[in-house]
Amino acid sequence: MNEKDEVKNQNEISDHSKCESEKNEYLEGWKRAKADLINYKRDEEKRFEEVAKFSVSSLLKEIIPVLDSFDLAITALEKNGMAEKGILMIRAQLEDALRKGGLEKIAAKEGDEFDPQIHESIGEEESEFEEGKISNIIEKGYSLHGRVVRPARVKVSK
Amino acid sequence: MSKIIGIDLGTTYSAVAVMEGDQPRILENSEGNRTMPSIVALSKSGERLVGLLAKRQSVTNPKNTVFSVKRFIGRKWTDEEVQHDKAWLSYDIQESSSGGVEVKMGDKLYKPEEISAMVLAKIKSDAEMRLGEPVEEAVITVPAYFDDAQRQATKNAGEIAGFKVRRILPEPTAAALAYGFNKKKDERIVVYDFGGGTFDVSVLEVAEDTIEVKAIGGDTHLGGDDFDKRIIEYLVKEYKQREGVDLSVDSLAIQRLKEAAERSKHELSTALEAEINIPYITADASGPKHFLIKLTRAKLEELVHDLIEKSITHLDKTIKDAGFTVKEINEIILVGGQTRMPAMQEAVEKYFGKKPHRDINPDEVVALGAAVQGGILQGDVKDILLLDVTPLSLGIETLGGIFTKLIEKNTTIPTSKSQVFSTAADNQTSVEIHVLQGEREIASGNKTLARFILDGIPPAPRGMPQVEVTFDIDANGILSVSAKEKKTDKVQSVRIEATTSLSKEEVERLKKEAAEKATEDHKKRDLVESKNNAEQLIYVTEKSLKDAGEKVPADVKESITKKIENLKTVKDSEDVEKIKSAAGELSTEIQKIGSSMYNENNENKENKPNDNQGAAE
């Protein structure tokens, strides 16, 4: 083999390896794009499910204060001995409708350990309970499919 | 290779985003929220809490709840800022041995970057959960005024959290990237960032491949929270005047009032009036009391007018510091939730004499821009991978000269689309495929790219044969159109080059023309479609009359024939309404065929109970 041929051969080899590396780069890019699309589709499905499940949360957030007002109204009326069965029924009806939509009341009672996962403290006070326990429930908490829509607003014993 | 995420590590809130395809997307955290409070706490039970959970217990655990730590990161103890902020903090800070700041949480002392690292660590694990893969690299944003020490400390925070920090990016630069302004060479951009607790103005200049910060200004203690405070103060004062009750001493009342005030502030960004309605807010000797006050947009603007003015003064000063005049500014970007307030937008617009950009969610724009930077570093946004789009829609001509689109304009290529068409007449043995490009609904208004004929279709009634038309555009914009008769598999095709080679002007002209003729075309299309429907209806009715033969009573047959004749005469007119009503009458009428046959069938059944071979079955 003479020198010229060798140079030519080497050029061919380097051309070939350039092609090879380009091919690999493109194939890699193509595979990545395909994988991205498949993953995107899967994620999108999951996101749709989530959206469908939680799309009502903003509406629920608006309705929860109405439930609060109902609670306050009923307490005030009971004090005056004016609480009518009808009003209690309307409240139950509203709660029932929301429960069907997936809204659940967060269980919280005085003396429970304060848990920021489901409770929010809005103040401290002296009470019969140990320090760090819930002394007073100010507003009820609600969750939707296990996700807290509004934590229970509580006072904590100090 | 894992993705590089973009993090907006804010004073009060943080957000995180990632590139997906060619667009950045916000990642929700484990609680399902798009932003998270930048708060860390050591709970009374000794548990470390980050984000929303830390916020929820802050009232009862103020000493061990650390917020706004960004105000101390990388600062010296002797800094004026630190001495000023120290006064209003609920937690303790002290001088570190190296002259920096240390934060006390529980019994331990932490550097501010260690606290920030706890926030970043939660962001990291939440992002990994969302993406379903490990996340190792991040771009983190900082205010433009951060000095080297502050940037280095932020970078350290990222590294403590387990990130490889690929870049520390100024927040205004991130906002400009989110809007794609890095491509606007030689432009000058102002970023007006009104956040919850801080207000920043930056002047940027876009040079070759870089965005340079020319001047910065603002007020680190001016923000949307001040607006909320003003509203609550006003409402408390107003209520005291009207009802003689001081709500500020009642924690439940204040809690409800706070929420209502925030809601009304948001509402007043779109409405002119908001009603703050809080039943049973308190009680006195006379019984329960309610809260009902109307807040108008004008009143809100009056309450915070001076705060907005203050921000404009800072804006003016910063532009002057940069050495520019107002006229030399090309783009203005609004960042921060408070910029949703119309009065604020108007103030900025009035100052510049042009509209600021605010199409991207102002709470998320910085994180999105950081993700864009991450994408650039990763190579996702490499120029050679930029995919072309079809500038105009592509499709074929269908019955009555209608343009039926197969590929919509602005579709990213390469792509392919198929649709099945059929014949318009009985025993039609060939179809002409007329390939068109354009936006008009009427075929003749668009540009013809090719015509070809597919023949050899086996004779059949109209609507029966299935011809599948496929459009395929490759990455070079070359369009292949094929038509296949599905029964015989006979195929004809054509290849058209240079579908994307139209000049920009030509594309614009065609789009404009389509927009101008849109109503006219739509009317024409409506007419053609009504005619097509009428013809189809006549065809079907005549066929079923024939098929049913003697089973249809003579009177029914006669009335239907009359309606058919009526439709036949009006269908060639230009009156859409007449055609539609005649077609409507006919379709009501033909239901009689079915019902008369059904009745007959029932009668038959009564007469011959053993005969199950009813005609209508």
From TrEMBL, chain A:
Participates actively in the response to hyperosmotic and heat shock by preventing the aggregation of stress-denatured proteins, in association with DnaK and GrpE. It is the nucleotide exchange factor for DnaK and may function as a thermosensor. Unfolded proteins bind initially to DnaJ; upon interaction with the DnaJ-bound protein, DnaK hydrolyzes its bound ATP, resulting in the formation of a stable complex. GrpE releases ADP from DnaK; ATP binding to DnaK triggers the release of the substrate protein, thus completing the reaction cycle. It comes from Candidatus Harrisonbacteria bacterium CG10_big_fil_rev_8_21_14_0_10_40_38. The gene is grpE. Its main location: cytoplasm. This is Protein GrpE. The keyword Disulfide bond does not apply. Homodimer. The keyword Cytoplasm applies. GO terms for biological process: protein folding.
Automatic annotation (TrEMBL), chain B:
Keywords: ATP-binding, Chaperone, Nucleotide-binding, Phosphoprotein, Stress response. The keyword Transcription regulation does not apply. It comes from the Bacteria. Residues 592-617 are annotated as: Disordered. One of its GO terms (molecular function) is ATP binding. Pfam families: HSP70 (PF00012). The keyword NADP does not apply. InterPro entries: ATPase_NBD (IPR043129), Chaperone_DnaK (IPR012725), Heat_shock_70_CS (IPR018181), HSP70_C_sf (IPR029048), HSP70_peptide-bd_sf (IPR029047), Hsp_70_fam (IPR013126). The modification Phosphothreonine is found at residue 198. Induction: By stress conditions e.g. heat shock. Acts as a chaperone. Belongs to the heat shock protein 70 family. This is Chaperone protein DnaK. It comes from Candidatus Harrisonbacteria bacterium CG10_big_fil_rev_8_21_14_0_10_40_38. The gene is dnaK.
